[in-house]
Structure formats: structure tokens, C-alpha cells
Amino acid sequence: MTQHGPGAPEDLDRSWGAVGVSLLTAAFVLALLALVGADLLWLVALGDDVRRTGSVPDGVPFAVAPSDGWPPVLLVAEVVLSVLHGPGLSALLLWHFLTVLATLAVVAVDARRRGASDRSTALALGALLLGGISVFAVVRLQTFSLLPFALVLLLVRSQHVRPGRGIWWAPVLVAVWGNLHGSVLLGVCVVGAYLLLSRLSRRPAETILVGLATLAALFVNPATWRTGEYYLGVMQNEAAAQGEGLWAAPNLSDPFDLLMIAAAVVLGAFALRRRLPLWEYVALAGLLVATVVAARNGIWLLLLLTAPAAAGRAPSRTATPGDPDVPPALGRPSARATVVCLVGAVAAGALLLQRTHALSEDDERFAAQVAQAAPGQVVLAPEPVVESLAVHGTKVWLSNPLDAFEPADQRAYLDFMAGRPGMATAVAASGAVLVREGSAADERMAGLSDFDVTELDGSWLIYVRT
């Protein structure tokens, strides 16, 4: 094998076979498990409204609870998802499928650039897939952040080794990402840690300019100067304050959270076997705190750990300033391996489309049942089904984005989701209430005399005001 200077390993692993098998495994896992979750279809409904009216709505037009003045930061994401949803849920799932595979591929390249072997990279990707399965197998708005976060890590790690003008891609990435998902704030924090702790002392003037440009890029969206108001609302919404739903802390009784924690421990153990740059330790500490606060942030911790964990078993090639031997030559997959991976990915994608076509039909049929049972009524329904109803034209009382609404209405909706007494406010404002049979909300609705109940598919009940 070719050597790459003093200290380079004698037998640099240039193969990609194990990584290819890992990516194919991920493709078939996604094809079999991927589902649409909460925090996605509300953007489709908003995007549909934008495309239909040709204007930016004031608030959330498909919900009757007051939401005037909500900043339209994610307008681009809304329109993109509306277009993707045109053919049905299958197109959204295919977009998610391709995004996850692209993210895993970028992480693999990042690991190999650190000197990780083919096998160790594949094993690290397997741990990432298992630990992040609740994110990789469920399509949410968060999908928009997977690839940008991986690209930011790849960018700043390469710049840590060889600082150059490529760092100016950071504000470009942030400007695009900020129109798609709020996790861009974590990406900015990672970039900031690198700029302050790795680059500032070597190239101060350029670093300050890049930092200012990256912060300014957060405001390159339709909300412009109101962007800060949007993010403040997101972080102060009632679900975040109460630690509920997507803002819940890790739960040791949740198998998905246990998988995430186990993967983080394993990846962290291997990553910390070698000395990391200071900025990576700081980013690691920040994401660890974020994960303790909300389990949904665990995916960013896993993505940060995967590349250094894969390289943890290799001879030391820690990226240090001025090291001309890093990144090493990566090699390239053989033509046969490339063909096998492409054919396998196409087969997995076809399986996904076949499976999700039925999901799309079920989604439309259920929305039609609700509309027939409660014609013209404002419907109170739980996540994620409420977002599907909104997409199909049903007027709902409240839905995601939760932070768009008044705090009192947010609390009433969360009480409805949990079946608590406070749901009475939400019920009083609605003409029909959709609940799961046997749920806490169903038990409370059964005690009300001014509603008629109708059974729907899938153990759903709809209470219609008489």
C-alpha cells in the first residue's frame, strides 16, 4: 500500500466493501420501517396554502386557535414539502430515505478521512443506525437537518486540519439550513466552537468575518429580523417547558431512548480513546447537555461521535494543525461494489414505495371518514393524525407548530393529548373531538352528554357535538 509520510499506517485500508454493506442494510431497514410521524405534515398544509394563494399566510390558516403574527421562518421548507407531498406520502418517505442514506455516506467519508478502516467505519455506522433508529425510521421536519449537520461536521473537521477559504461554505450552509429547520442553531454552535477554539488564533481577521457572516446567515429567510422571535418562541413553547412530546427528556423505560444511550456510550468510549481537538470536546459537552434536556437531540450527539469512534481503533492520525498527512487517501469502491450498492438501493427504494402507497391510501380514506362524520366541524385531534386531517382540508382547533399559538391554548392542547382535566378548554372550542378508544381523553369525553360518538377505523372514536 502507498504510504503517506511519516507516521502513516503501513497498510492504509482503501476498501469500502463493509461500508457498502452497512449502507445497504440501512436502506432495507428504512424500507421496512419508515413511517410519517408528528411535526411534518403541518408544513405540507401550510405549503399547500402558500401555493394555492400565492401569499404568505398570517399565522396557521388551517387552525382556528389564534396564531396571528407567527414569523414565517420555515416558508421554504413548507413549499418544498408541499411539492413533495403532491404524489402522496410515498414521495415524502422516499425523500427521507435518500436523505438518511446521503447522511450516512457523508459520515462514512468523514470517518475514513480520519484514518478509520472500512470495517470500523461500518461498525460505527451500525451503532449510529441502531441508536438513531427513532429518527432514521420516522419522517419528521428534523429530516431536513440530518444532511446539513453531517456536512457541517465534515467541513469544520477538514478545515481544522487544513484551514482555507473553504470555511466560507459555513455561512452558505447555514443560510440554506435556516430556511428548513431550527436545528441550524446547533450547527451554528458547532461552527462557533471550531472558529473560536481552533481557527481564531491562527487566522483572526478571517475567522471573525466568517463568524459574523454565519450569524447573519441565520436571518436570511422570509422572517428576516423577526427570526430571533421565532426561535425564542420555539424554545419557550409549553411542550418544551413541560418536557412533553418531542421535547421529552430521555426515558429509561423507552426502548428507543435506551438504544440511543447505549449507542452514545459505545461510540463515546471509542471516540475518547484518542485525543480530540478542543473544539470537539466543547461541542461534545454541549450536545450531551442538549440530549439530557431533550432526547430528540441525541441524534446530533451520535452524529458527532461516529467518525472519531470509527477512527478510535486505527493508528493515531488525530487531525492537528499543519499535519500534511491528514486526510489520508480514501481509495474508491470497485465498479462491482458500486453496481451492487446501486441495485440494492433501488430495490430498497422500490420496496419502500410499494409499502407506503398503501399508507397513503389509508391516510386519505381516514381523513374522508372524519370529514363525513363531522361535516364542517372544527375538529380537535391528537398528533400526528391532526396534521394529516389538516392536509386533507379539515379545519382543526390546534396543531403543530405549537409555538405559533397562545400559551394558554398550547397548555389546553397538551392537556387534551394527555387526557387531563385542562382539556375542557380545547373541547369547548371544538365541534368534534377525535380520540383513541380507551384513551384517557376518551374516558373524559364519554362523560359528556352533548356529544354523539361514532366509531371509525383503527380503534378511533369521534365525538360530534349535538
TrEMBL record:
Membrane spanning stretches: 21-45, 92-111, 123-156, 168-196, 208-225, 255-272, 284-307
Keyword Lipid biosynthesis: no
Signal sequence coordinates: none
Domain of life: Bacteria
Keyword Transmembrane recorded: yes
UniProt entry keywords in alphabetical sequence: Membrane, Transmembrane, Transmembrane helix
The name this protein goes by in its record: Glycosyltransferase RgtA/B/C/D-like domain-containing protein
